[in-house]
Amino acid sequence: MSQRLLVVDDEQSIVTLLQFNLEKAGYEVQTAMDGKRGLELAQSTSFDLIVLDLMLPEIDGLDVCKQLRQNQVFTPILMLTAKDDEFDKVLGLELGADDYMTKPFSPREVVARVRAILRRSSQQPGHSEVKEQVTNPSMISFGEVEIYPENYEVFYQKQALELTPKEFELLLYLANHKGRVLTRDQLLNAVWNYEFVGDTRIVDVHISHLREKIEPNTKKPIYIKTIRGLGYKLEEPQLHV
User: Fold this and answer.
1) Alpha-carbon gap, residue 35 to 57, rounded angstroms
2) With 199 labelled, which of 7, 89, 93, 192 sits at a CA distance of 20 to 30 A?
3) Burial class (CB in 10 A: 0-12, 13-18, 19+), 217
4) No. of helices (H) and no. of strands (E), the chain
5) What single-letter DSSP state applies at residue 150?
6) Do residues 183 and 231 touch, judged by C-beta distance below 8 A?
7) What's the DSSP call for residue 238?
8) By the 8 A CB rule, do 107 and 18 touch?
9) Helices (H), the chain
10) What is the dihedral of CA 231, 128, 68, 6, to 10 degrees?
């Protein structure tokens, strides 16, 4: 069965170009020309991936992304933006987008990016290459954080956390390599499963988002430590007696 994609963009030429090339690559493609219709389709129909433009009529792409994640729709999102604006890109990632591309782009690049995202995704949450690396499939813990890979659940202080698929995979990868310094490139290649065309700020954004959810004080993290000039390391917090 072909994987189903939703393309949401208000430029007919872009929609036609993407639909033609994605269908040629073997995907089933449905389209929407505004954010309101795109949101309705994304919530009422099961898709394997959503290609979502940032600037849309009715509801913009950032709000569509935000509402989907709030409504527990975790379909991977590839965000498109005509702006070379770091703020918009970072905000999109913080709201739950998995990746972004800046217009103009080549159809071949879009197809390659879609394939890359789908390679590390599946219809069952948490079923990914990262999950296969789990050393203890039942539960992984550090400090007051508990990860249940098989159930795709994370608890902090016994309270369930709402994580995007990327946040979950990143936290799981860090936990499986507890105590090791991991560079941004290592995290990018391991969790995103391909060489990101842009830069490694996508890692920093997701690290920041994780810290907001598991760190008592984000300015003085006790779990995910920044190793200046190298990357990040997940540690077991020191208990002060």
Assistant:
1) 6
2) 7
3) exposed
4) 9, 12
5) G
6) yes
7) P
8) yes
9) 12-24, 35-44, 61-70, 86-94, 107-119, 129-132, 165-176, 184-187, 201-214
10) 110
pLDDT one-digit tens code per residue, 160-188: 998 877 888 899 999 999 999 999 888 88
Q: Is 106 exposed, middle or buried (0-12, 13-18, 19+ CB in 10 A)?
A: exposed
DSSP 96-134: T-SEEEESS--HHHHHHHHHHHHHT--SSTT-SHHHHT-
Record the tokens describing residue 119, joined without a space: 């390679």
- 184's tokens: 């941004």
Which of the listed CATH numbers 3.20.20.100, 3.90.180.10, 1.20.1250.20, 1.10.10.10 matches domain 129-234? 1.10.10.10
Using pLDDT thresholds of 50, 70 and 90, give the confidence band for residue 139: confident
**For 66-103, what is each residue's pLDDT tens digit?**
899 888 888 999 988 876 656 566 677 777 788 888 88
4-119 sits in which CATH class? alpha beta
Q: What is the pTM of this model?
A: 0.62
